[in-house]
Amino acid sequence: MESNNDISSAIREIIESNFIKDDYFDSHTIINFLQKKEYHQIYLKNFPNYYDVKTYHSQIAKEIGKCSDLVEEAKIREIKTFTIYGELNPNHLWRRK
Fold this sequence. Notes:
This protein is α+β, with helices and mostly antiparallel strands. 40% of the residues lie in helices and 25% in strands.
């Protein structure tokens, strides 16, 4: 996977490999996967210099939403989860199709 710099492909692979039908997960879960050894180079290479972390992570959430053949927004659209800074913030909740 590291040879592929496409964050969209990495997100798709994470969803397909780790979640089954009707599993719920939030955007921070995907971000945590992207920061792990297998995907961290993709995460870093796609981080625009002009973005702050919050903006980049928001962009990742939008990329998750583009995987509409795999996921849909949960009926409860947002939950509070911890950011990488340990702060509780609203976050998108997704359901695997």
